[in-house]
C-alpha cells in the first residue's frame, strides 16, 4: 500500500487528465474552467465507502477488522489491513465508474474522506489521535470531466456518534477544543496541498468542512465555521466552502447571510424520509406529494431558503438524499420508489444549485437496492437514465439569431420592469437591469458552450445569484437591479437553448 503523500491531489489530477480514448470530455486548464466547475449546476452522487468505509455498503474490508468492526479504525487495527485496503481503494471506484457517470450527465462527485487520509502530506494530522499508528491510505481513479467536492466525513475526535465518522468511539469534537483546532489544521493541510499541485487542479468544486456535525450548541459550531472560513480564505479566497445545516436549514441560512465571505458559501441539507416514526407511518405517495406540492412545508422551506441564499451570494445543495423508504411506507405499487425519486429531483432542480445521491454503489448481492444504490436505481428504472440538458443540435453559427432573440427579450423585460416600478416614484437605475439581463444571457451561453459536460449534457449556470455578484464591481444601490436583470436573462437563455438546441 502506498503512503498518502500527494495521493489525494495526484488522484484528483488523474481524474482530470487520465481519460480513456473514448471520453468526449475536453481537457481543461484555465481559470474560467475552474469557475465553470464551481458555479455550474451540480448534479452528483456520493462515492460512499470508497475512503470512509461503511459496512452496510460494503462488508468485504471488514472481514479481519478488530471489534466492533464498524469503522475505519477497526479495519486499521485488524489483520491484513494494508493488503485489504490497498485492494479496496484500487477496485471500489475505477475508470469505468467515472465513464458511466459522465455518460449519463452527472457533473460532480462528492467524496467523503477522513482526516487520517492526509497523514502522508503532513504526518502531524494524526499525532495525538486514534489513528496515530496508521499512515496507510488512498489510491484513486480516473476522471471524465467530473467536478470533485471533498467532504470531511471524519474529523479528529469525531463530529458525530456514527461509525462513518472514522471510529467506533464516542464523539468528542465538541467536548475538547483541541479537536476543533486540529481540524482546521487538517483543512489547511488539504487546501494547501491541493492549491500547490502542478499542474493546477481545475475540477475541485469545493471543500465541505464537516459532515453532519452534532454540536453541543449551534453557536459553538457557527463560531467554529467562522474561524475555519476565515482561516482557509488566507490560503485560497476563491475556494467554495460547503457547510452542513444540521437539519436546521433556516437557522444556518441566517448564519450564512450574516457571515463575511470572499468565496462561495454553500449550505448542505440532507434529506431522508425513512428513519423517523413519522416517516415510517407515511405512505410513499404521501411522501412524494409532500415534496411536489408547492404549498407544502418542505417545498416552501426550500423556496424560501434558496431565495435568501441566492440574494446573499451563496447557494443551497442537497448533499445527501436517496430513494430509500421504510418498508412501512411502501404500498406495493410498482412505482412507489420511482415516483418518490422523481418528486425529489423536481424539488431539487427547482430550488437547489446541486444534489448528490447517496450512494453510487453497494456490494453486490442477490437483490438490487434501488433505494440506496444509484447503479441499481438507474438500471431498475427508478432513477432517470440521463440528467441535465442534452444538446442535440449545435448552436455554432447561430449567434446572430441568439443575439437578436436576447435583445428582443431584454427590451420586453425592461419595458415590463420599468412599467412596474413606475407605480412607485423614486430614482431607479433601469440601465442596470438591462445590463444584467444581457450579461446573464451571455454567461448562461458561456456555460452551455464550455464543453465541460459529459455524455451529450451541457454545463448549466447553477449558483446564479453568487455568480451575478462576481460579474460586477458595482455592489451599490443599483446591484439589485443588475441582479434581477441577470437572473431573468440567464433564465431566458436557458429556455431558448432548451427549445432550439436540446432533445426533448
UniProtKB/TrEMBL annotation:
InterPro entries: GH, Glyco_hydro_5, Glycosyl_hydrolase_5
Keywords attached to this entry: Glycosidase, Hydrolase
Keyword Hydrolase in annotation: yes
Biological processes per GO annotation: glucan catabolic process
One GO MF term attached to the UniProt entry: glucan endo-1,6-beta-glucosidase activity
Residues in coiled coil: none
Domain Glycoside hydrolase family: 93-362
Gene3D superfamilies on file: Glycosidases
GO CC, one annotated term: cell surface
Family designation: Belongs to the glycosyl hydrolase 5 (cellulase A) family.
Protein name in UniProt: Glycoside hydrolase family 5 protein
Species of the source: Mycena maculata
Amino acid at each position: 500500500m502506498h503512503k498518502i503523500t500527494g495521493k489525494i491531489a495526484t488522484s484528483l489530477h488523474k481524474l482530470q487528465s487520465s481519460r480513456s480514448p473514448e471520453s468526449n470530455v475536453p481537457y481543461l486548464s484555465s481559470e474560467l474552467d475552474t469557475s465553470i466547475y464551481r458555479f455550474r449546476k451540480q448534479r452528483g452522487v456520493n462515492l460512499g465507502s470508497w475512503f470512509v468505509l461503511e459496512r452496510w455498503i460494503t462488508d468485504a474490508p471488514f472481514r479481519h477488522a478488530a471489534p466492533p468492526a464498524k469503522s475505519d479504525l477497526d479495519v486499521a487495527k485488524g489483520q491484513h489491513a494494508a493488503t485489504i485496503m490497498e485492494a479496496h481503494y484500487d477496485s471500489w471506484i475505477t475508470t469505468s465508474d467515472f465513464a458511466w457517470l459522465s455518460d449519463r450527465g452527472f457533473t460532480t462527485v462528492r467524496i467523503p474522506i477522513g482526516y487520517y487520509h492526509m497523514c502522508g502530506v503532513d504526518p502531524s494530522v494524526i499525532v495525538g489521535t486514534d489513528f496515530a499508528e496508521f499512515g496507510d491510505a488512498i489510491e484513486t481513479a480516473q476522471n471524465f470531466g467530473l467536478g470533485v467536492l471533498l467532504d470531511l466525513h471524519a474529523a479528529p475526535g469525531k463530529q458525530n456518534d456514527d461509525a462513518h465518522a472514522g471510529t467506533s468511539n464516542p464523539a468528542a469534537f465538541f467536548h475538547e477544543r483541541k479537536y476543533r483546532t486540529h481540524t482546521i489544521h487538517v483543512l489547511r493541510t488539504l487546501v494547501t496541498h491541493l492549491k500547490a499541485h502542478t499542474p493546477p487542479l481545475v475540477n475541485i468544486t469545493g471543500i465541505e468542512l464537516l459532515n453532519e456535525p452534532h454540536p453541543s450548541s449551534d453557536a459553538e459550531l457557527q463560531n467554529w465555521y467562522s474561524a475555519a472560513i476565515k482561516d482557509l480564505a488566507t490560503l485560497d479566497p476563491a475556494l467554495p466552502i460547503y457547510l452542513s445545516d444540521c437539519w436546521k436549514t433556516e437557522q444556518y441560512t441566517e448564519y450564512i447571510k450574516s457571515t463575511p465571505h470572499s468565496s462561495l458559501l454553500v449550505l448542505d441539507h440532507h434529506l431522508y424520509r425513512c428513519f423517523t416514526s413519522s416517516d415510517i407511518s407515511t405512505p410513499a405517495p404521501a411522501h412524494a406529494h409532500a415534496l411536489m406540492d408547492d404549498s407544502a412545508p418542505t417545498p416552501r422551506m426550500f423556496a424560501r431558503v434558496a431565495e435568501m441564499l441566492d440574494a446573499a451570494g451563496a447557494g443551497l445543495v442537497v448533499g445527501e438524499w436517496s430513494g430509500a423508504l421504510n418498508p412501512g411506507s411502501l404500498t406495493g405499487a410498482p412505482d412507489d420508489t420511482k415516483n418518490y425519486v422523481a418528486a425529489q429531483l423536481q424539488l431539487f432542480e427547482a430550488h437547489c444549485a446541486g444534489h448528490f445521491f447517496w450512494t453510487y454503489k453497494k456490494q453486490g448481492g442477490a437483490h438490487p437496492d434501488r433505494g440506496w444504490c444509484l447503479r441499481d436505481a438507474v438500471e431498475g428504472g427508478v432513477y432517470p437514465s440521463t440528467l441535465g440538458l442534452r444538446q442535440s443540435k449545435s448552436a455554432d453559427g447561430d449567434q446572430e439569431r441568439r443575439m437578436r432573440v436576447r435583445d428582443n427579450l431584454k427590451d420586453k423585460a425592461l419595458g415590463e420592469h420599468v412599467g412596474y416600478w413606475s407605480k412607485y416614484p423614486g430614482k431607479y437605475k433601469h440601465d442596470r437591469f438591462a445590463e444584467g439581463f444581457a450579461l446573464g444571457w451571455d454567461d448562461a451561453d458561456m456555460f452551455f458552450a464550455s464543453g465541460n459536460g459529459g455524455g451529450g449534457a451541457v454545463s448549466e449556470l447553477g449558483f446564479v445569484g453568487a455568480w451575478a455578484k462576481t460579474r460586477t464591481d458595482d455592489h451599490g444601490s443599483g446591484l439589485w437591479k443588475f441582479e434581477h436583470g441577470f437572473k431573468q436573462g440567464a433564465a431566458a437563455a436557458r429556455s431558448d437553448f432548451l427549445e432550439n438546441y436540446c432533445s426533448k
